[in-house]
Recover the amino acids of this structure.
């Protein structure tokens, strides 16, 4: 089996995943108690005739099966349909929002990955020291704390009391878009990214810590010590080599969780992104948009896992030989 | 080993100080900005809820819960909810109520310099009619331009309330309209659109060429954030106006006061007026209730529930008693304000034969216990609180209410046989028509689940719609509530027991004058800025 086969096999898996995800999401969405028309009209006074014409326009008069068939045939032609709430193409809504989200998620992803791994290494290496104990309790506390609450806390400390970070948004208040530069964007992303990082670091840090301890207690490390290898070279030659792979797997596997967390963080920090959009779509019964975002996210998560697999191949020669 | 540790810590400290260093520079800049603002005092930053998802396009509904701000409307409602001219200097309605003629002013220009003409008005209404949106123009038969500044509308049937819909419809420029108009609107209203950062902020500037009084607020920034975050932002001094809710309004913010906007955002109980005889709606849901179908029960509840107490207990005082769906609007009948009177309530019950024979605290009539279900949408804490508080008060009258929270799709099935805690409040008497006309009874649209059907009320409703004169129409709407013999209020048949109007709350920075506000409709947020052009800093 060569690399092309491997990629084709995974591509087929992705197609299957998309089909399954869209069927499940659609079934859940159409059977949810939310009446999109009711959500849309609110308490506006609308006559029954107008209500009927909105229903017709949104295609709610067709049976559920008809709607699904129509939607999926359009999708096969690359057409994600129109969002009923935003009244424009689903893809254009997503592309408007995805930029900021992606920026936030990628910075969180990188920060948690690198920092989490380093902290994990440190905790494992200096097991049961004061530093390890403090970090461990911090990790356990944050992994048990809801994202929005951490976000609120960060806002209150850094924005209200200290006043060193903005209260939210991805750009300064009341400033023209053409006067906003990349540093403004980064400055506004720090707090939400920090919040997400705090919430997601424990996962990888604690995991790496236990792996490090496992390796340090292994026979081969004992043997290395007996051979007179220094701590430094043991860390380099044995510990890092044997813990980096599980860390990568864990980190790429948490892709979907980081997305979930970013939905909450975006809401707290009024940060424009897919997170707030998917909430709007879900509550408003905007099925085309909901399906569109769900599919894009599944592709995203799938690709994340796929990259992790590929990295495995390149990093670990054993797997490379077996798999290919 | 120790050295490694120290090295790691040093790096961490360096990174941290770098971060703090960068940001403290930023703060200085920001502080200067705020100082500048305090000197000029002609700009305002506010957070008033969520953004319109479809953008700022009046054709699909922008401006319907307040005023379109960026666009101007043919007519508008003043602080007393009377119709006055805007883009149209004046208008006439034909005797049969079918033809409306508007005389436009000739000094109105869009912000791109093009004049507003009758063609733009025709274009706006024709596009809106085809939009399949919340903008309901089904009654409009045809609209045409008689000349550059005269517009004529033909209605399918007379509808005196259509003018309220016209008053909320901003006029869009035909020459600059496209599917993406809502992202980058051009209008002839008091404010000029500057920028919309989706999910974040809307920036407006005063339109210096506006034909009316040019707004004193030269720059308006509207931020879109949740109430929690808005509260934090207000505390950080970044906001001049922040929308809030009673549960959060307990916090004091330095330099800000709480502004209570009076509303017709009402809550009340729908009570089925027909007995259960095994009848079913088209969808097969049972109709009728043997307790609430007795008028004495409905009237006793109307008189015997202390609305002031509900306001204090459930709304922390942020509300007013409600007596109809349209308290204090020009079409509200003052007589509907019934006095809280427990003795009278008990008398009514006893006269009708509801007596507590077995001394269990609940009255009976024959074999029928005075007991019914009250359902509310679970998750809405205000509705839950009201349902429970009203139940406690009803108990003292000898009426037992069983409260149940459920989702709307379950309420859909049970609202024809049980009491429901509902809420309405549109600045348009069309709502009165929809709530009480017999054509809506038992229909799956929440308007008349009580199955209320009164031919005299129907006649007033129909006449009020047909009348070409707004004053006469208002008199007829009042008669719907009470005409001396019958009506929909507590004096008449009381198909609803209205409980409270919920105040809308905003933190407002001291020194801001929010002008004379209309009574706000159901829907918290944009109504506050309907009169934004009158706002000013007083200091």
């Amino acid at each position: 089996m060569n690399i092309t086969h491997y990629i084709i096999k995974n591509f087929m898996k992705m197609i299957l995943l998309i089909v399954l995800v869209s069927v499940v999401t659609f079934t859940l969405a159409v059977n949810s108690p939310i009446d999109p028309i009711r959500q849309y009209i609110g308490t506006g006074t609308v006559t029954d005739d107008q209500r009927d014409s909105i229903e017709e326009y949104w295609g709610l008069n067709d049976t559920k099966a008809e709607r699904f068939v129509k939607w999926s045939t359009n999708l096969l032609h690359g057409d994600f349909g129109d969002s009923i709430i935003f009244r424009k193409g689903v893809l254009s809504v997503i592309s408007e929002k995805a930029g900021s989200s992606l920026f936030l998620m990628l910075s969180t992803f990188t920060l948690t990955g690198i920092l989490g791994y380093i902290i994990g290494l440190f905790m494992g290496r200096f097991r049961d020291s004061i530093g390890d104990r403090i970090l461990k309790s911090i990790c356990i506390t944050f992994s048990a704390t809801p994202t929005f609450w951490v976000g609120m806390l960060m806002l209150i400390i850094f924005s209200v009391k200290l006043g060193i970070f903005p209260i939210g948004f991805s750009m300064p208040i009341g400033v023209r878009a053409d006067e906003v530069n990349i540093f403004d964007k980064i400055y506004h992303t720090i707090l939400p990214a920090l919040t997400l990082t705090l919430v997601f670091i424990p996962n990888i840090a604690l995991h790496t810590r236990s792996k490090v301890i496992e390796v340090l207690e292994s026979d081969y490390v004992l043997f290395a010590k007996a051979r007179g290898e220094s701590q430094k070279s043991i860390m380099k030659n044995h510990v890092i080599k044997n813990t980096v792979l599980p860390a990568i797997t864990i980190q790429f596997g948490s892709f979907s969780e980081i997305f979930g967390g970013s939905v909450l963080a975006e809401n707290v920090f009024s940060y424009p992104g897919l997170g707030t959009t998917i909430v709007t779509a879900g509550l408003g019964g905007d099925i085309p948009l909901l399906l569109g975002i769900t599919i894009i996210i599944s592709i995203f998560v799938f690709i994340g896992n796929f990259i992790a697999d590929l990295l495995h191949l390149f990093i670990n020669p054993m797997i490379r030989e077996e798999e290919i | 080993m120790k050295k490694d540790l120290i090295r790691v810590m040093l790096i961490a400290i360096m990174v941290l100080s770098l971060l703090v260093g960068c940001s403290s520079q930023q703060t200085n800049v920001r502080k200067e900005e705020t100082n500048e603002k305090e000197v000029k005092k002609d700009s305002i930053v506010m957070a008033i809820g969520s953004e319109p998802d479809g953008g700022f396009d009046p054709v699909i509904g922008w401006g319907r819960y307040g005023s379109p701000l960026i666009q101007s409307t043919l007519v508008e409602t003043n602080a007393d909810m009377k119709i006055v001219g805007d883009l149209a200097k004046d208008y006439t309605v034909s005797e049969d109520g079918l033809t409306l003629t508007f005389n436009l002013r000739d000094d109105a220009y869009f912000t791109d310099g093009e004049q507003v003409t009758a063609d733009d008005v025709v274009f706006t209404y024709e596009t809106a009619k085809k939009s399949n949106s919340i903008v309901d123009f089904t009654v409009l038969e045809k609209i045409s331009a008689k000349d550059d500044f005269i517009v004529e509308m033909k209605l399918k049937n007379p509808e005196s309330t259509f003018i309220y819909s016209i008053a909320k419809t901003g006029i869009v420029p035909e020459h600059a309209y496209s599917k993406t108009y809502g992202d980058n609107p051009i209008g002839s209203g008091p404010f000029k659109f500057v920028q919309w950062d989706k999910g974040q902020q809307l920036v407006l500037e005063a339109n210096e060429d506006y034909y009316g009084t040019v707004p004193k607020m030269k720059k308006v920034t509207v931020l879109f954030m949740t109430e929690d975050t808005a509260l934090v932002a207000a505390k950080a001094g970044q906001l001049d106006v922040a929308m809030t809710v009673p549960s959060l309004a307990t916090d004091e913010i330095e330099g800000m006061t709480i502004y209570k906007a009076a509303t017709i955002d009402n809550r009340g109980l729908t009570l089925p007026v027909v007995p259960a005889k095994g009848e079913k709606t088209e969808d097969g849901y049972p109709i009728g209730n043997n307790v609430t179908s007795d008028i004495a029960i409905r009237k006793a509840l109307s008189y015997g529930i202390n609305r002031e107490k509900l306001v204090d207990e459930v709304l922390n005082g942020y509300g007013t008693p409600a007596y109809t769906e349209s308290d204090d609007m020009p079409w509200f009948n003052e007589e509907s304000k019934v006095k809280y009177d427990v003795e009278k309530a008990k008398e009514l019950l006893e006269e009708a034969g509801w007596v507590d024979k077995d001394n269990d605290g609940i009255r009976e009539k024959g074999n029928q216990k005075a007991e019914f279900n009250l359902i509310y949408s679970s998750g809405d804490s205000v509705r839950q609180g009201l349902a429970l508080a009203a139940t406690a008060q009803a108990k003292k009258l000898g009426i037992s209410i069983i409260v149940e929270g459920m989702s709307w799709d379950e309420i859909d099935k049970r609202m024809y046989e049980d009491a429901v805690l509902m809420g309405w409040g549109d600045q348009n008497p069309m709502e009165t028509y929809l709530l009480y006309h017999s054509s809506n009874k038992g229909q799956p649209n929440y308007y008349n689940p009580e199955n209320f059907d009164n031919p005299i009320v129907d006649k007033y409703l129909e006449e009020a719609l047909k009348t070409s004169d707004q004053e006469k129409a208002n008199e007829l709407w009042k008669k719907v509530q009470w005409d001396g013999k019958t009506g929909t209020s507590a004096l008449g048949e009381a198909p609803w027991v209205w409980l409270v109007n919920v105040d809308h709350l905003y933190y407002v920075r001291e020194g801001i004058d929010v002008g004379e506000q209309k009574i706000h409709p159901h829907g918290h947020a944009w109504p506050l800025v309907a009169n934004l052009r009158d706002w000013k800093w007083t200091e």
